[in-house]
Structures are given as structure tokens and as C-alpha cells.
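This follows on from our talk about sequence and fold. I would like you to pick a protein and set down its sequence and fold. Go ahead and set the record down below:
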Amino acid sequence: MTDLDAAVTVHEAFERTRRIHGHRPFLHIPAHCAGGPVELSYERAGREIERLAAAYRAAGHGPGTHIGLLLGNRAPFFIHWLALNSLGATIVPLGSELTPDEAAFVLSHGDVDLLVYFPEFAALAEQAAARSGTALAPIDQGAHDDHVTVPELAECRSPRDRPPDAAIVFTSGSTGRPKGCRLSNDYFLSFGRWYRDLGGRCTLREGLERLITPLPLNHVNALAFSSMGMILSAGCIVQLDRFHSSSWWSSVRDSGATVMHYLGVMPAMLLQLPPAGKDRDHSVHFGFGGGVRAEHHARFEERFGIPLIEAWAMTETGGAGTISTHEGARHIGSGCIGRPSPRYGEARVVDEQGREVPAGQIGELVVRASLASPRQGFFSGYYKDAAATEAAWKDGWLHTGDLARRDPEGSFFFAGRRKQIIRRSGENISAAEVEAAVGADSRVRAAAIVGVPDAVREEEVFACIVVRNDVEPSLETARAIMGSLAQQLSYFKLPGYIAFVSELPVTATQKLRYGAVAEQALALLAGSDPHVFDMRSEKSQSRRAAAQGPRQC
């Protein structure tokens, strides 16, 4: 066990790194990002944390206090987080993309006592607080974030019998109402140790890495994964306010980034940039993320010289349940998510009765830390929802709701969401499979596939499609897309409806909000939008053609 492994809180781990590597950079915010430029060493950040913690302590905040942070991806977020962690308080991070009703739900359900926010988020903060009865603490930060302003803090009167969580992070709600995931200090520390010890293609060099990420701090990838990986390896967090494709490579070069975190939309957008002589002029030795489209994976690596290490995880799993391609075959372009780290977790694919299925067969992905301690390092449960927590844990495994298959060598392949199965005339259709086929069409910029009710067939396939700017959203385009799909998919998987839309509802991390997509599809089906086309006759023609087989000359 190292000195860092003896830490029992996030702040204690930070302090141990500060004592050994105080002169090294902890946080870098580029000049073009909100609040930038910022370059804080571990020592300088530590002094800011101590100053802010003293103010929170004086106002009575500590164990049992729930503090909402509406601070975007800026330096003060890290300082407030670590200061509050040092006092045993719980943070509840909020994204600025929330609606007032969504934010009010987080504040109310999360029992947030105080919401700390920047003036640019005042309208959202004030409306949400008015609906939830939450106290407010605005921060007038000034031009730069290298010196953190202490907000005026009213005396805390929160209960002291709440669970000792480090954070409550609300799920993205892509398939329903968000749940508050209770995350302990052990969760954060386990995530950081998992990343630090991963090795293979994802080896972190102590004191040398600079990890660039545009991902939001109200989600665990940036909050627990990249941040803890850097704290426990004395690395530097290069935090962007958001993803800017046009300035991405200059940010990578100027910041000296050596590791990048990505989502699938990022490689897609970066490949659209004109080729440049500086495409490989960087110091990044690997990218870590998930969801890169099959047709983009090899192209990105060949052009930019960065291996994209695909992985799978959930807010609920932390590092203990994460699967990645850090070692072994990557099977580029196949949806491979790798395998668990043998030191930290286990995974299997099961049927509806919880029985492990043979290699090659699709089933639900379930994960655990170990047989002896299945929940070690995972989330502590859903806040104020014990029933949902126990429903997720069955037979000692966390049931993820994701579909996967495993090959004979032990690699796992993502196959979609269990709730994304469309049941049509007795056939189970994977929305993810249809979505991938539609998305591969050169006319399509983005697509989402859902099922809509059908009086005869139970459900029908409905495609919401965003076409490229130079493509006309017409019946001719819909027919052309159908013709292309008919060469790839069985007739019953083809869309019965195609709707051309201007945009798709997504979360802050650019994941499709399938619940909202389903609502959008039903509204389009019931309305009279001229860009919604009934393709069921074309689908029937494909069925007849398939039944007849190839014609003989």
C-alpha cells in the first residue's frame, strides 16, 4: 500500500499528493475557456481550498450538509468540491443545461441546503431555488478564476443524520426520471486507483500526465474518473468549458496534453475538419472514452495517431465495474468494450433468469466487484430510493440494463440498451443496430430509433433523422435511405416511419435522451409535419422482395 492508498477521503488524497508534489501543476484552464487562463499547482490550489473551507466551517457547514454546485467546468468547482469534502459535506453538482423544473427536482430530491452559482446562471438558479425552497449563494468571481472568491454564506441549519456521502450525482435520465446516485469517498478513491493501476495502453506516468477533457463536472467521467486519476498520479487536469472542435487541437498542443477523454461525437466532429499538417503534432499517447462510431475508429487513429481506448461504465459502477480495451484485442470498429481489470471487477452476460449465456449470445451485462464484496467501490445506492437500489442488485450482481455479448476469448461487445428493444410481430429488434445502420448513411448526420405503438404488429420502427445541410429532407431522400438500409437489414428491422428533424434531444454528455425521443416520435406521428413519412408500404415491398429471393435471368 502506498501513502496515497492510506487516504480515506478525496481531500486527504489531494493533501497527500500536495505534500509530495506541491510544485507540480494540478489544474489548467486554457485562456479561451470561461474563467481562463488558470494554472494552479497542488500547493496553490491547497491554499485556496483551506481559505474556502474556513468560510464554510464558520457558517456551520459539515457532515450532513448538501451543497449544490452550479459552477460549470471552471476552477472554482474543484476548489469548492475539495473544500467541502474536507469538512465531510456532500456536493450535488448541477449542469447549466437543465431546465428550471429539472434543476428544481435535483435540488428538492437531493435535499440541497444551499446552491452556489455564478451570475451567468442566475436565472436558472433563482427559478429552481424558488420552486424547491433552496437557499442561494451567488459568486461574483471576476475576470479570472486563479483566485477563488468566497461567497456570502448564511448559517447552515441542515440535519446531521443524513448519509455521509461525498457526492450525489444525478443520472442523465436518458430513459426516465433522473436518480440520485450516492457516491462515497471510497467510490472516488477506488475509481482513481483503478485508473492509476490500469496499465497496458492506459499507463499513467506519475507526475507527468496532463489529461484534457471537455466533459461536464456534473457527471462522473470528469468528476470522479479523470480528476481522481490525476490526483492519485500527481497529474494535471486540463479542463475545458466544453468541446470546441475548431480549437481542440490548438488546446491539446498549447496545454501539453498527454491524455484525452472523449465521447463518440468528438472523433466524428474532428474527422470533419480539413486535413492539416499538424494533425499528428501533439503529445497525446492515448484517448479514453466510449461510443466512437465503427466507421470513424480506424480513420481517427490513422489520421491523428492516437489510439482510442473504448470502455464501458455507468455512474453506478465507478471503476470497480468498468470494462475497457486497455489490454488484449481491441477489435476496432466492432463495438468491443474490452474486459474488466482482473484486479478490480467481474462481468458476465446473462439471460432473463440471470443465467450466464454462451459466448456469442446477446444478453444483459451484469457486473460486480467480487463474490466476497460485490458492491465494493460501487455507488452506495439511489438517494431516497432503496427499492430501486435493490432492484438494480439481484443475485449479487448489478444489472445494468445494457445488452452485450462475449467472445470465446473473454472480450465483451456492446449491443445496445435493454430498453431499446423494439418488439414487432414477434421479432425483437435492436434499436442500436438499426441506429448504427442509419447513421452510416452518407446523407445522415444523426439518428435515433425508437418503437411506436402499432395496432397490428405491437410496435413499429420509427426513425428520427437529422440530415446533412446539403441534403433535402424529402420523400425522395427517405426512399433513398430505405433503399440503402434494405441492403443491410432484414425487412422487419427497416423503419416504418422516417421523420426528418432539425435536432435530437441529448444529455449534457451528448447521449440521446430516448425517453424524450419517444415522446418526440409520438408527437410527430400524431401531427401533420410534412417531414414525417409513412414508409410501411416500402417496407412491405422489401418483405415481398426478400420472400421472392433473387430473380433468374
